[in-house]
Amino acid sequence: MSSLSNFKKSALILLLASSIAACGDNDNNDSIEDQEPVVIVEPEPVVYEFTITFSNLTAGQPLSPLSVIAFDETPPWKFGETASVGLEMIAESGANEEYLSDENALASVSAEGGIGPGETTSVTLLVDAQDVLNLSFAAMLGNTNDAFTGLSSVDVSTLEVGSSISRTTPVYDAGTEANTETADTVPGPAAGGEGFNEIRDDIADIITMHPGVVSNQDGLSNSALGAEHKFDNPVSKIVITRTQ
Q: Which runs of consecutive H residues, i.e. helices, occur in the chain?
């Protein structure tokens, strides 16, 4: 009986030893040196092409060339925030070179020229993007001090090829120049005054809704603007069509 018991104990010890050895072999086989490196594959960017149609709905306000910026997260302007120098230049003079070079832009484009009352123009934008894609728009109302229209952000990442979305736009005040309407401060054809001025003399240096043109016929005696330069919202219509 004692011999049998000793035999069983010996067999158990051998079995445990074999298991330990096997575990040791498995650890060696699964060592870091033997593991395959993890390869992270970045998603391929999607090529988007958009045709943007821009219509001036006013009766007496010329609009500057439409400026379009594509971005993923940070728009070039936001309602209630301080205007960038680029947006200030658009709102005060219609010049958009500074604005279109925004550091967060994935791509940008400008229409070829200004757009008169009742007219329509179009522009094409091509951009590569991976995930979220937004478009932002801006154009000056020429017969004002610093009024502009546009859209801060429109998500177009899910727009299918051949599909369109349409938006109308109100008038914003860039908050960078007082609305004096004088001949020397309004750059449009109604006055031919100064455009961009880096001095900001508005009461609030933030983007707000524009209060509207007063004109020399409604109590602002030194205004270079007449009743024909007044406007009602919306002042423009933007149609975005994905063509690729």
A: 2-29, 85-93, 97-100
Fold entry, domain 46-242 = Immunoglobulin-like (2.60.40)
Choice among 21-30, 33-42, 158-167, 219-228 with the minimum mean pLDDT: 21-30
**Cα gap 78→151, rounded to integer Å:** 9
Assigned token pair, 164: 């369109």
Q: Which residue has the tokens 């009024």?
A: 147
- Indicate if the pLDDT at residue 20 is higher than 70: no
pTM for the whole structure: 0.82
Rg (CA), the chain: 32
Domain range summary for the chain, segments of one domain joined by +: 46-242
What is the token pair recorded at 219? Answer: 């109590």
Cβ-contact 64, 142 below 8 angstroms: yes
Tokens (6 digits) for 15: 């079995």
83 phi/psi in degrees, rounded to 5: -70, 140
Res 30: pLDDT: 52
